[in-house]
Amino acid sequence: MLNLKKITICLGFILSFSSLLSLPRPHNPDELGSVQILRSALAMDKHYLLYLVEDFEGERPWDFYRVDSFLAQTQFAASIAKSEAFQEETKLIRESGYPNLENQTSFLLQSYVENPRLDHWEIRPKEPILLPLGMPIQGILWVYSEGHHINLSMGLSQKKSKDLYFDLGTLNFVGWRRLEFRINLPRENTRLIQSMSFPISFASFRLKSLASQKKGEFHLYFDNLCFVIDKRTFSYPGSEVNDTWGNKR
């Protein structure tokens, strides 16, 4: 009887833990407010730069690098977010040095889940995207999902360092969402950037299917990948990065 009770408790713990893995990323109900805060932060402190990593308008070739599926396709589709927040952020990006940004297409990813516990994918630009001098401290990506239990992470690369991956959360929401994520670089990477000899590059997106994901075909859309770059680290050679932008929120 005691052993049966222990097994029941363990099983309950495992099930509760599995359910946590499939929780959706916390939704920000005020995406427009977040864009307005971003605008204010950039206006208040000129050390911060809004860098458009990729607009997904079709000029840059992308492809699946590592896949577990027989179906893995990418293309640029005429489907973009229609929200006021997306329109305002597009306007802010244009004002931040990208006046020719069109926003007519997004990046469509299509694949197939065969083994939900193990399937994973990596999507890379043909060449890594070199970032400007400075410390990337925050990322923004617009994502369309249809309730998929798939986790998304982003990879950065740097010479003399292992690739770094940052979690954007689980994509089991429906529709377009603006995902913000902090970029906390290890100290050794910040030192390499501060040397001005080893800039950092955007390298890839990674998708990982969770056990709760159903088998079958799925698709996602990405749009307007941006980083906030802190340039102040080069004002005082050897100083630690002063990540204050996130605290202004």
Topology (SSEs and partners):
Layout: H1 2-21, H2 31-44, E1 48-54, E2 62-67, E3 72-77, H3 84-95, E4 106-113, E5 120-125, E6 129-130, E7 135-146, E8 150-158, E9 164-170, E10 174-182, H4 187-194, E11 200-209, E12 216-230
How does this model look, in words?
- Helices cover 22% and strands 39% of the residues.
- The protein has helices at 2-21, 31-44, 84-95, 187-194; strands spanning 48-54, 62-67, 72-77, 106-113, 120-125, 129-130, 135-146, 150-158, 164-170, 174-182, 200-209, 216-230.
- The strands form 2 sheets. Strands 1, 3, 4, 7, 10 and 12 form a 6-stranded antiparallel beta sheet that branches.
The topology string of helices and strands comes to: HHEEEHEEEEEEEHEE
Number of helices: 4
Classify the beta-strand content into a percent band.
35-45%
Question: Which structural class should the secondary elements be placed in?
Answer: alpha+beta
Radius of gyration: 20 Å
Low-pLDDT residue spans? 1-24, 235-249
Shape: globular
How many angstroms does the end-to-end distance come to? Answer: 54 Å
> How many beta-strand segments?
12
Give a quick account of the main beta sheet: strands, pairing sense, barrel closure: 6 strands, antiparallel
Helix percentage range:
10-25%
Average of pLDDT: 82
